[in-house]
Design goal:
Order of helices and strands: HEEHEEH
Number of strands: 4
Strand order of the largest sheet: 1-2
Structural class: alpha+beta
């Protein structure tokens, strides 16, 4: 159990570092929880921003997207800054 928790924390920290590097490289900021612009958000904050969006993949095909929140503003900025690519093997 400790190994799984350690691995999860490592993945979490890598995602946070990549996000911060992308924001710095693009010269972008996103609002923190108090609404102040920051280039060093936590990955938890990003998860909060995207809360309410569900995407379902079947193989490499996106089959369903459910948006319970409006997509725009900071969500678009984060997505475009990170440009995360989803690949399947």
């Amino acid at each position: 159990m400790v190994m799984i928790m350690g691995l999860a924390l490592r993945v979490y920290s890598i995602a946070e570092r990549k996000l911060r590097e992308s924001l710095k490289k693009a010269g972008e900021t996103i609002p923190d929880q108090k609404g102040k612009p920051t280039q060093k958000p936590t990955i938890r904050r990003v998860f909060q921003v995207f809360e309410g969006i569900t995407v379902l993949y079947k193989g490499s095909e996106m089959v369903y997207v459910q948006n319970r929140v409006e997509i725009g503003g900071e969500k678009n900025k984060i997505a475009m800054t990170c440009r995360c690519e989803h690949t399947h093997t």
